[in-house]
Design goal:
The chain is built from 14 helices and 16 strands. With 497 residues, it is of the alpha/beta class. α1 packs antiparallel against α2 and α4 packs across α5.
Length: 497
């Protein structure tokens, strides 16, 4: 193994020399380095910290991956890349049914960046629909059947070709078992059939992570999808305050909210509030916050005293936040359409529904126009940052990982120039590095990089034209209105123009 050590020293020297000269690695794409196959666990392992994402990051990443591959044959053990389950030491903080809450973790000893992810999965807001949820979706209310490991995907992946800017971070996945949009602080008692402790679960996990290296972190990114995305908005400032109260105010706490930016709009067709799917968004949250004993950010609570339910809606809570937050939101979010009673199955969508869907995109754009860091494609989908295709979707030629890298850089430059102040408005990123990205085309899936559309009944893939026809879109009539030949309009739709 002595030869392995010599090779390591030489390669590290060469890597840093090439970065200093600004040279590109030969014969490789800058954004898709070779597969990361593992890291030696013996004395040859070495720390790497990529906290500041600078211009030569791609070159350095390429060299590091080449280095990791060259060392792999020297290792007798392959590093386990999966996240491992840990139950909370504090047994009083539990899932809905009183079973132990916990988290999955994959530590990266050389990195001072931490990514803590909040799982999504709707919610329940009464004994009746919580009982039903427990019968049909027990994993989201109890830890009794959780697996011992989880494999990270998308932004949680340890593979740099799937996760180019965060693959080396310490990864933490917190399973959702509180059914309260990560807001509750109520234990299970003789009077309460279920515990709702989502907010407390996050706090306990962060406290435990301080004993595992978070106390020495530079950046903590609190990320989440769907209900977890809303959970980010509700908890990111509380996490920052917790770290500050424990003497770790230098840790830069940031949020990444994916598909959690819901609108408190009127339903397309009003129905009785029976369960999560049929209930109007505002009514469900009003009932839920009382049932859960929900906690909201202090500044938002003060702004909406007596009507704290407002803080569950992104455009109302965001202006009150101190921590920087990057918002990811499909303009035609499937979960939003579901609670608005627009169901894209069975018969083609009627003209009134079609107008409602287009107006939803317009309303969402309006709530996002002043958000400094965001990514909003005109797609019909839900959740993205843990999908393996998350690198493929683009807005105006920029992918989501690239936009997040630009956000990283803008915050790094802002802190370097203005000290460690917490501001939700990053300074302008370098030219050619956009971070306010929103589609302007008006239809669902008018962006050609949108994920594949599948018929919700048959599961079959649909082309954009098939989808629009299914939606009741009259191509001939629309072409006439636009003064175009139908064939030309079809070509424009296919290309996303």
């Amino acid at each position: 193994m002595g030869g392995g050590t010599l090779t390591l020293a030489m390669l590290v020297t060469l890597s840093l020399a090439e970065v200093a000269e600004g040279r590109r690695p030969r014969g490789g794409r800058t954004h898709s380095p070779p597969s990361y196959r593992g890291r030696s666990e013996g004395p040859e392992s070495f720390p790497l910290d990529f906290t500041p994402v600078e211009g030569n990051m791609d070159t350095l990443m390429q060299q590091v991956q080449n280095l990791a591959q060259s060392l792999y044959p020297c290792s007798t053990r392959r590093l386990d890349q999966d996240m491992k389950l840990r139950f909370l030491d504090n047994s009083t903080v539990t899932c809905n049914d009183g079973s132990s809450a916990g988290y999955y973790i994959k530590e990266s000893k050389g990195s001072r960046r931490w990514l803590v992810f909040l799982e999504g999965g709707w919610y329940c807001f009464s004994k009746e629909n919580c009982d039903s949820r427990y019968d049909t979706m027990r994993r989201l209310m109890s830890s009794s059947r959780w697996p011992s490991t989880r494999t990270g995907t998308g932004i949680l992946s340890p593979q740099p070709e799937e996760n180019p800017h965060w693959w080396n971070a310490n990864m933490v996945f917190i399973p959702y078992c509180s059914s309260d949009v990560w807001s509750g602080a109520s234990p299970k008692t003789d009077q309460n059939d279920y515990a709702f402790m989502g907010s407390l679960i996050i706090q306990e996990v962060v406290k435990e992570l301080l004993t595992k290296g978070l106390d020495n972190a530079k950046v903590l990114l609190l990320a989440g999808s769907s209900a977890g995305g809303t959970g980010v908005l509700l908890n990111v400032d509380q996490v920052a305050e917790l770290l500050k109260s424990r003497g770790h105010g230098s840790v830069q706490v940031r949020g990444l909210a994916d598909s959690g930016w819901f609108l408190d709009n009127k339903q397309y067709r009003r129905t009785d509030c029976v369960d999560t799917i049929s209930c109007a968004p505002t009514e469900a949250i009003k009932r839920g916050i009382r049932y859960w004993g929900g906690v909201v950010p202090e500044q938002c609570r003060l702004a909406h005293t007596g009507e704290e339910w407002n803080c569950f809606f992104g455009y109302k809570v965001f202006p009150t936040l101190k921590s920087p937050v990057f918002v990811v939101q499909w303009l035609f979010d499937e979960a939003q359409l579901t609670v608005d009673n627009v169901h894209l199955t069975g018969q083609p969508v009627q003209e009134g529904q079609w107008r409602y869907i287009q107006n939803l995109g317009i309303e969402l754009r309006n709530t996002l126009k002043d958000i400094p860091a965001m990514f909003a494609p005109a797609c019909l989908s839900h959740e993205v940052i843990t999908r393996n295709y998350w690198m493929d979707v683009q807005v105006k030629g920029t992918s989501l990982p690239r936009a997040l890298q630009c956000w990283d850089r803008s915050l790094h430059h802002s802190l370097r120039n203005h000290g460690n102040s917490s501001s939700s408005s990053p300074r302008s990123p370098p030219r050619g590095c956009p971070l306010h990205l929103i589609d302007s085309c008006p239809w669902p899936h008018c962006n050609p990089t949108c994920p594949t559309i599948r018929d919700q009944l048959t599961g079959r893939e649909m082309s954009v034209i098939q989808f629009l026809t299914h939606m009741g879109f009259d191509v001939q009539r629309m072409a006439q209105q636009q003064g175009l030949e139908p064939s030309k309009l079809l070509g424009m739709l296919n290309s996303g123009t």
